[in-house]
Specification:
The chain contains four helices and no strands. It has 103 residues and is an all-alpha fold. The chain is elongated and about 65 Å long.
């Protein structure tokens, strides 16, 4: 026999509220990773382009790290599974590879 729903259980609303910062950090990671992948230096002398790649990669990795830190909070751990952070972690990994490949 299934348990009756607890009227004080707010996991649905709490999940929606906690999804907002995770979605914003993931959006930052998406934009930063896209920027890092689309910047093309004109040559080895193009220091500004290389600096832009490093900045975009660093911000993507920082946003991915922010999703992990947010996910480690006890209240968030209770309602959100790790699968919510996987897109940001994947983008952070792509940015790290791009940063390493940029020289």
């Amino acid at each position: 026999m299934p348990r009756p729903a607890d009227p004080a259980d707010d996991r649905g609303c709490l999940r929606l509220v906690l999804a907002v910062p995770l979605a914003l950090l993931t959006a930052v990671a998406v934009y930063s990773c896209w920027t890092a992948l689309t910047i093309r230096p004109s040559g080895p002398w193009d220091d500004d382009a290389y600096a832009g790649i490093v900045l975009a990669c660093a911000s993507s990795i920082a946003a991915a790290g922010g999703t992990v830190v947010l996910r480690l909070l006890p209240g968030v751990r209770r309602v959100l599974p790790w699968s919510w952070t996987l897109p940001a972690l994947l983008l952070g990994t792509v940015a790290a590879v791009r940063w390493a490949a940029s020289g």
